Amino acid sequence: MKNRVFLILLVLAVAFGLAGCKRSAPTPTPVPPPAASAPAGPLDAQVVAAAFQKGTCGACHVIPGVPNAVGTIGPDLSRMGEVARATLQSSAYTGKAKDVPGYIREAIVEPDAYVATGCPGGVCQKGLMPASLAGLLTEQELELVVQYLAGLPDKAAAAPLPAVTAVPAAAPALSDSDFAVASQIFFDRCAGCHGTLRKGATGPALTPDKTVPKGTAALAAIIFNGTPRGMPDWGKQGVLTQEQTELMAKFLQQEPPAPPEMSLAQMKETWKVFLAPEKRPTAPQHNRDWQDFFAVTLRDAGQVAIVDGDTFEVVNKVETGYAVHISRMSATGRYVYVIGRDGRATIIDLWLAVPDKVAEVKTCYDARSIESSKYKGPEGDFSDKYAIVGCYWPPHFVILEGLTLEPFKIVSTRSYTYDTEEYHPEPRVASIVASHFKPEWIVNVKETGQIWLVNYTDPNAPGIKMLEAERYLHDGGWDSTGRYFLVAANNANKVAVVDALEGRLAALVETPKIPHPGRGANWIDPQFGPVWTTAHLGDPSLIAIGTDPQGHPDSAWKVVRNIQLPGAGSLFVKTHPDSPWIWVDHPLNSDEVIQRTVCVIAKANPTKTEKCWEVADYGRAVHFEYNREGTQVWVSVWGRADQPGKTGEIVIYDDKTLAEVARIPNLVTPTGKFNVYNTVKDLY
Ligand code: DHE
């Protein structure tokens, strides 16, 4: 593993160049061979600018002097001439070019000849640069592009090219049936990051003004190959075929369709109570330690497995929503609340002889979060009384009866952005947590950057305090005292801190690119005291933020540690108060070895990873959970539902020695795991 990382760094160091530009496209079209004698006369600025526009180069590259060339998918070409010269002299170069123009021409027409590494956000992806783009240019245009790039950086400063007005603005044609198929794929795979209306959030906006100038070939290449900044490589993963990536590239150039709304009456039509509260047992009907049960998401099976933490037996597999997202426990832990991506909420009773669902309801078409009411104190006992579902589409949250899931109150989150006060039609509900200090839910509204403190004392007339935080709020967790909630504003590279006791924003902390904590991890740093940790999707680092303003005021709400990881693409971290380790995964890294690698960092020496290893020889290692005692760590191997023997499993490690204890094999795409006791107690 270490050797591999070293190699990557070495290649990075010697070979910054045009390579992100240089890879096979999903469906390369034949590139015309260069003419024997290409014209090499003086550059006509207008014609050169038009050539760059025709080749859609600026969609992926920064090219000084070229109007609108500000793309950040391929390498920055600002110093292309210099970089080409240096690369030709380096031993890392694998192409056939002998001079700078030859190198650049090769990079465009034969992208596989040599792939450099300097894409924004990390190593350039294989196949990112579509060879078919060269086919868009005539030989003369290609030569003009080559000449211009070969002259950088000097040429741009000397003579910036004029803006070209003739934009090929029309989206490609799409039949109604193709449009319908693409809409469904978009909902299943893309809406989570880009928004149903494609206005952008974790991923960039994909409205026609942005996508049409990129063109079908460039878009298809990105969808097929992913980007180092976290866009999954849907084609390479085998999730989308080449035909489907091209279909999606065409779909993205059309106006986004407006999805339907949902009323309370429509929700109630889907509401089912399988076992009424009065018919449920008054004590557990089995002898298992139900507080050590794990609710395990079997993502592509649309099920949650209830697994016994003592015996590792799968006690039941409960049918829940499509692509189940998370589970949360009721205040007592007896009930598991599950939310599917399709907005279906399910409640599972762990006291039944065979734990099973007792009610379900669909509260929207697209959802990610669910929580229960947890407050018990002078203002009342709300344990297991209400539940809340946070929706992506329609953008609203719904309050439900805690024991039956009967929905009774919908609150729209359509509102105004916290900073510019502009109306946003799709502010989606991201994470929700229940405060222990007040009868309140903390509801994170992604696109407007507002954190809503929703008081549920009178849930039909909920009090809502709107805190101004930062845009693209996503996931987060409590500090060790349960007073402060830390939530990633992922695309703003910040973590917002809410003081749940005083009901105010305590801080906004700058982080590396795209923090993604899950619920984070709390531990005591030997130098800085209590800290909370996140890793990042867009940066190979794990940071610790001081969380103790009283005891350690100098480190409070500051990044006090930044520990290097083998790669970016991390989704989750975890620890336990009794553990010597902080665990971190990298499932969205583009390297398939790093994808299945987990690392531990020693709390006693939080300056480096102590150990990294591959959890399996396939799939992605994702998400951690401790058993009730805090002695074992469960890691999911997220496989492929269509690959028998490699659909996924859970690997269990001894937390002290890091030795493997057991495997629970043949699970279908396990992802999140939630231990009853730890989830109720917010232990992470
Ligand atoms: Fe998640 C938490 C949204 C992709 C597994 N995910 C969350 C939360 C949100 C969210 C808002 C916080 C819920 C809370 O605490 O109330 N997730 C999204 C997306 O929008 C995104 C980026 C894209 C999408 O289309 O859904 C996305 N998430 C994923 C995955 O691809 C994962 C790895 C597998 C899957 O289910 O598709 C995944 N998300 C999880 C898990 C948690 C989660 C396991 C809970 C972590 C925890 O420990 O609490």
Task: Enumerate the strands of the largest sheet in spatial order, edge to edge or round the barrel.
Answer: 1-8-7-6-5
Secondary-structure content class: alpha+beta
CA-based gyration radius: 26 Å
* Percentage of β-strand residues: 25-35%
For the largest beta-sheet, the strand count, sense and barrel status come to:
5 strands, antiparallel
Helix content: 10-25%
Small-molecule binders: heme D
The low-confidence parts are 1-41
Name the average pLDDT. Answer: 89
The counted number of beta strands is 37
Give the termini distance in whole angstroms: 27 Å
Number of helices: 13
Describe the structure.
- This protein is an alpha+beta fold and 684 residues long.
- A 5-stranded antiparallel sheet has the order 1-8-7-6-5.
- Strand 21 (473-478) and strand 22 form a beta hairpin.
- It is globular.
- The protein starts with a helix and ends with a helix.
- Residues 1-41 have low confidence and may be disordered.
- The structure holds heme D.
- Residues 192-193, 202, 299, 323, 325-326, 368-369, 430-432, 474-475, 518-519, 571, 622-623, 671-672 line the site of heme D.
Summarize the structure.
The chain has 13 helices and 37 strands.
Note the main attributes of this structure:
four-stranded antiparallel β-sheet, 31% strand, 684 residues, binds heme D, single chain, globular, five-stranded antiparallel β-sheet, alpha+beta
Strands, helices and their partners?
Elements: H1 2-14, H2 45-54, H3 80-89, H4 100-109, H5 139-150, H6 154-158, H7 176-194, H8 208-211, H9 215-225, H10 242-251, H11 264-269, E1 272-273, E2 293-298, E3 303-308, E4 314-319, E5 324-329, E6 335-340, E7 344-349, E8 356-362, E9 366-372, E10 376-377, E11 380-381, E12 386-393, E13 396-401, E14 407-412, E15 415-416, E16 423-424, E17 429-434, E18 440-445, E19 450-455, E20 463-468, E21 473-478, E22 484-489, E23 494-499, E24 504-510, E25 515-525, E26 529-536, E27 541-546, E28 559-564, E29 573-574, E30 581-584, H12 592-595, E31 597-602, E32 609-614, E33 620-626, E34 632-638, E35 648-654, E36 660-664, E37 670-675, H13 676-680
Antiparallel strand pairs: 1-8, 2-3, 2-37, 3-4, 5-6, 6-7, 7-8, 9-12, 10-11, 12-13, 13-14, 15-16, 17-18, 18-19, 19-20, 21-22, 22-23, 23-24, 25-26, 26-27, 27-28, 29-30, 30-31, 31-32, 33-34, 34-35, 35-36
Helix pairs in contact: 2-5, 3-4, 4-5, 7-10, 9-10
Bound molecules: heme D.
